[in-house]
Design brief:
The complex is a heterodimer.
Chain A: E1 3-14, E2 17-29, E3 34-38, H1 45-53, E4 60-63, E5 66-69, E6 72-73, H2 79-85, E7 90-93, H3 97-100, H4 107-118, H5 124-137, H6 143-146, H7 156-168, E8 174-178, H8 186-203, E9 206-211, H9 214-220, E10 223-228, E11 231-237, H10 238-243, H11 248-255, H12 297-301, E12 312-313
Chain B: H1 2-8, H2 12-21, H3 24-41, H4 43-46, H5 84-120, H6 122-137, H7 140-151, H8 155-181, H9 185-192, H10 197-205, H11 210-233, H12 245-252, H13 261-293
Classes of the chains: A alpha/beta, B mainly alpha.
Chain lengths: ~325, ~290
């Protein structure tokens, strides 16, 4: 296992009370594998990523039974050790590439900076050459000229390519892609995802693909993990989760895709009624029960746990096949 | 090929110059400053006499362009027969040096304090900002006088005193920009690439805070010159034979009615230098601000 997480809990102390943002999160990821994480805004996807990078704010209280990366206990790392891992072993790309690049420097310089931090074996000239190579690798035409541009001179797609170049500069073993295509238009989305897949295959890199676009994960992830209110509620291979969802929430997400139900012109999209619960006032029992069409008494009285099958689900009344 | 690309992309400096050169006042300020800087650098070549050489034959000779003036001393002489023009030229050298060192010291310390305060927040922020508040609670010239009277008068002590007075401005400006910048995603991105806190502060955030800092530095230059001249005038800055504008003003005070040029000319020099830097500062602010909004 490259990354092994077991019963990760994350709490925030706020003036209005304790927010239990992530509850008993367990997952693992193998080398070269793509894990898709899906869920609504505020379900804890992004904060999980930050926890994996050791970049939680000071107010966060993180505990886990196990949080291992390549056998290293991440929870015990000191800041200096973290800095060696970040960028070198685990890298991250962001939702909005335009703001993730420093406006003051040329993009070439920014990629070079990452190399300077982690590849001390390269000389200045070698680093420069390597930057051009990386830009070429992520499909940027005329890399030598482009390296001299600033972030505001590049389009969104180009910026994301630069971010990817920066992220893969040190050949990380795990790439966390936090909604890498949300800010891009559809044609560019496809190119970027293809690029990520190519790089992944070439470097045998594991990838966590966070998104709320089910289409994207369905095509690109090996396994999918559905999160709701800081918990994993369903996890399985992409095929299983997309074609035979077991949790009513996953079912609801899939149903709310355009074209999944009534396909007549201007038909109403189906949606899941209600809202994500306020994490300060979690409902008792199953977190999804106030919005669930299958909700029974048992759902409010006790909390379902992920079962231990290959296709995991935490529901008392999972959807039957089909 | 190479040139082609260079032309297409407007370098930020080019863009800045286009904005800046539209502002006539700023250009005027820049010209004044360049002139003063040249005069300061070339002082030994430009001045006809030494700054302290005395000609007992010519005491309080008015400037050549007024009645009774002599072409030997274009701006006239002072009460002990020193050439006013030479003294003013050397005075430019001293004032520019004072301004320069004041800005270097106060900007350096102020920026570092502001960076730490803004970036770390919490108790670091509270301690630093309360210290700054204490500094700001005193009227600036009074504080400078206190510092000089503790350390003793002299030009280097005057520089330190004036620099201390100028620190709060820099700290507050840098802190405010850091607070805004540190929330941006590029900061988080560089963290994920393994950058250390110091690196992020000085190499990622600081360059993005440069615009207001440059403006403050150019205004700080004029404040520095003005405060140092005031200290000199009070006898707490540079000491007597030094051709400093503030001292020249103070020395000429008894003769303000009989030989008004002795007061007027150093006064005009101070005015021009301060005006030049203020105009430049305003121009920089106007030229740099739209970039901030973008």
């Amino acid at each position: 296992m490259l990354l092994d997480v077991k019963n990760l809990n994350l709490k925030f102390q706020t003036s209005k009370g304790v927010i239990h943002a992530i509850r008993d999160l367990s997952f693992s990821i193998k080398q070269g594998e793509t894990l898709g994480i899906v869920g609504e805004s505020g379900c804890g996807k992004s904060i999980t990523n930050l926890a994996l990078m050791g970049l939680l704010p000071d107010t966060a209280d993180l505990s886990a039974e196990k949080l291992e990366f390549e056998g290293k206990q991440l929870l015990k790392l000191k800041e200096k050790q973290w800095q060696k891992i970040r960028g070198a072993d685990i890298a991250m790309i962001f939702q909005d590439p335009m703001t993730a690049l420093n406006p003051c420097f040329t993009v070439g310089y920014q990629i070079e900076e990452t190399l300077e931090l982690h590849r001390k074996d390269l000389s200045k000239e070698e680093r420069k050459e390597f930057v051009f190579e990386l830009l070429d690798q992520v499909g940027i035409p005329a890399p030598r000229e482009r390296a001299k541009s600033y972030a505001h001179e590049l389009s969104g797609g180009m910026s994301q390519r630069v971010m990817i170049a920066q992220a893969i500069a040190c050949n990380p073993k795990l790439l966390i892609a936090d909604e890498p295509t949300t800010a891009l238009d559809v044609t560019i989305q496809d190119q970027i995802l293809k690029l990520l897949k190519d790089i992944q295959a070439k470097n045998n890199m594991a990838m966590i693909l966070v998104t709320h676009d089910l289409g994207v994960v369905a095509e690109n992830a090996d396994r999918i993990q559905v999160m709701y209110a800081g918990e994993v509620i369903e996890s399985g291979t992409s095929k299983e989760v997309i074609h035979a969802p077991k949790h009513p929430y996953t079912r609801g997400l899939l149903d709310s895709l355009p074209g999944s139900g009534d396909t007549s012109f201007r038909a109403h999209l189906s949606s899941i009624s209600g809202m994500v619960p306020d994490l300060r006032f979690r409902p008792s029992g199953c977190q999804f029960n106030p919005r669930c069409f299958k909700s029974k008494e048992e759902c409010t009285s006790s909390r379902p746990m992920l079962n231990q099958e290959d296709h995991q689900v935490s529901c008392f009344f999972p959807m039957s096949e089909g | 090929m190479e040139n082609n690309i260079e032309e297409k992309i407007d370098h930020p400096l080019v863009e800045f110059w286009q904005q800046f050169s539209k502002n006539k006042g700023a250009i005027f300020g820049l010209i004044i400053i360049v002139l003063f800087t040249l005069i300061a650098l070339l002082a030994p070549l430009l001045s006809p006499y030494g700054p302290t050489s005395i000609d007992p034959e010519y005491l309080r000779i008015p400037p050549s362009f007024s009645e009774g003036g002599s072409f030997k001393y274009i701006f006239g002489t002072d009460d002990v027969g020193r050439d006013l023009l030479s003294r003013l030229i050397y005075g430019a050298q001293i004032s520019m040096l004072i301004g320069f060192f004041v800005v270097i010291i106060s900007c350096g310390i102020g920026t570092i304090l502001g960076l730490f305060s803004g970036y770390y927040g919490g108790w670091v922020d509270r301690v630093i900002m309360r210290m700054i508040d204490i500094l700001m609670a005193f009227p600036s010239i009074l504080l400078a006088i206190v510092v000089v009277s503790v350390m003793g008068p002299g030009i280097s002590n005057a520089i330190i005193a004036v620099a201390i007075v100028a620190i709060p401005g820099f700290t507050r400006i840098v802190r405010a920009s850091v607070l805004a910048e540190k929330k941006k995603q590029y900061v988080m991105a560089s963290k994920t690439f393994g950058a250390s806190s110091l690196r992020i502060m000085f190499f990622e955030i600081l360059p993005n805070c440069m615009a207001p800092l440059i403006v403050q530095a150019s205004l700080g230059f004029s404040d520095g010159i003005l405060n140092a001249a005031a200290l000199g005038f009070l006898g707490l800055g540079a000491q007597a034979p030094t051709p400093e504008w503030g001292i020249m003003l103070a020395d000429a005070r008894p003769f303000i009615e009989s030989s008004p040029w002795m007061v007027t000319l150093p006064g005009i020099c101070i005015l021009l230098a301060v005006l030049g830097f203020n105009l430049l500062g305003d121009g920089l602010r106007d030229a740099l601000d739209p970039r901030l909004k973008r």
